[in-house]
Amino acid sequence: MYKRVLLKLSGEALSSANNQLEPDILSSLAQEIKEIVDLGVEVAIVVGAGNYIRGKNAQSLGIDRVQADYMGMLATVINAIAIQGAFEKIGIPTRVQSAIEMNKIAEPFIVRRALRHLEKGRVVIFGAGTGSPYFSTDTAAALRASEIKADVVLMAKNGVDGVYNADPNVVMDAKKYDIITYMDLLQKGLGVMDSTATSMCMDNDIDLIVFDMNQKGNIKKAVMQETLGTRITKEIG
Q: How far apart are CA 30 and CA 90, in angstroms?
């Protein structure tokens, strides 16, 4: 069983088809996280904001890339607070830390404080990405996992059960990988996460597990190191 995990969630994974936060999804997530917290696992979360805005998409509206990225960072904090509300409703102690200071609603991100929360059994949700434009929330997940010395990054996907050599929705005989190295991921150009995040995980020797969060119990299975989805690692063997 992993002792300390960082769960990467997309904004879309928390939302319904019309990109509204879905109470049932938040409630189900809270129940699954409670199961692993009760086992003594330390849990940190990085959440995206694709259900509200993506920096690249905002550019098409004529918004400057830097400003668009800051809009996305603020939206991640909205999602973080929604997750916190669902967690605390069922008794999971939770703290939101933001890379952009907003003291009325979240703590500033401080590594030592985050570690202390984790040691006390609190779930820590990291909002506002890295706090800088041009970096994705995938990179934020890799960075925070490195800073808190997480055992693994759990990348929970919405309806995607692993990494394939081609888009399984387009290519009928696409092959799913059970395990693959970060170097192969980069060389094959597989779009799991951006190259900055991939390189950071590889350099810090942090494994990443890509799995479908829509299947109930998958988060616990990933934490228990059961065979699930695709494991991405620095070296095989």
A: 7
